[in-house]
Amino acid sequence: MPDASMPDASVPNAPRAAAPRLNATPGLIALFCILWSSAFAAGKVAVADCPPLTLLATRFLMAGAILLTVTLVLGRFKRLSLREWGALALAGTLNNALYLGLSFSGLATVSSAFTAVIISANPLLTALVAGPILGERLTVRKAIGLLLGFLGVIVVLRSRLAGGHEALSGTLLVLAALVALTAGTLTYKRFGTSADLFQASGIQCLAGALALGPVALFLENPASAHLSAAFLGSFAYLVVAVSVGGYTLWYFILNRSSATEATALHFLMPPLGLLFGWLLLGEPVPLLDIVGIVPIAAGIWMVTR
User: Could you give phi then psi for residue 25, rounded to 5 degrees?
Assistant: First the structure.
């Protein structure tokens, strides 16, 4: 990815060029949504054979090593200021260690589809604080779209909780993960970096590994991991497809759009999360889940068109 797409991190609050519309890269957006939403089902498979924090710390370490190696081979590794290192480390801790650490811990007691639905509320939280933090203008059309998307999420949440299928403890962990993801998105968008996308993603992965590693060693027993074929396959997918591919695509999209528009894509996660949960794990899909998809789709169209 060209460095020109990155904001100038050397000048705080430097004016940024108008970002291309999201629909300029529909193929990449579709790929990102598939990778991001499928991660919950893959994670559900992996945590059955490995403690969640140990799984994530190892995943981030391997993904970070791959990304930085690619950066070096391509000759795109550049020296960064302490401010950029600090911003990327903070974003990596929020986006990787806290967001995924909390959500994967919650996956022990809630379904992958339910996790995807909760995380899809990220656009609403982002839109509420993107104005004062990033100076983004929330138009009436975008506000209506966000509310429609959130309404769809509420419909699915009510269906799941009323049926007693999800544990409260796991639900609270995933809600905390949602807050961490929103904070990480705004941190990355607010401070920016002049680093190549692979370098930026790699640094954030390593920051997540360094933050989670000591906690995993203290709370979990890595020796309890069972290296089954299902675990190895899902782990490889999480490292290569999601951490290397999905997160790099996410930062690419963030660089080319406002935070509100980019996070609106998370409203696609409920239907995709339901699909992957049903297809890979046999998780049931209540009728109200399908009903909730309608306002979600309408909300995405209004925010991103």
Answer: -135, 60
Q: What is the pTM of this model?
A: 0.74
Confidence of residue 258 (pLDDT cuts 50, 70, 90): low
- For residue 159, is pLDDT > 80? no
pLDDT of residue 265: 64
Whether residue 152 has pLDDT greater than 50: yes
Q: What is the DSSP string of 206-267?
A: HHHHHHHHHHHHHH--GGG----HHHHHHHHIIIIIIIIIIHHHHHHHHHTS-HHHHHGGGG
When computed from its CA atoms, the radius of gyration of the chain, rounded to whole angstroms, is 18
Tell me which DSSP letter residue 3 carries: G
CA 89, 93, 95, 99: dihedral to nearest 10 degrees?
180
Selection from 262, 255, 259, 257 nearest residue 4 by Cα: 255
- Host H or E run for residue 33: helix 26-46
**What pLDDT, on a 0 to 100 scale, did the predictor assign at position 62?**
96
User: Does residue 292 contact residue 152 with C-beta atoms inside 8 Å?
Assistant: yes
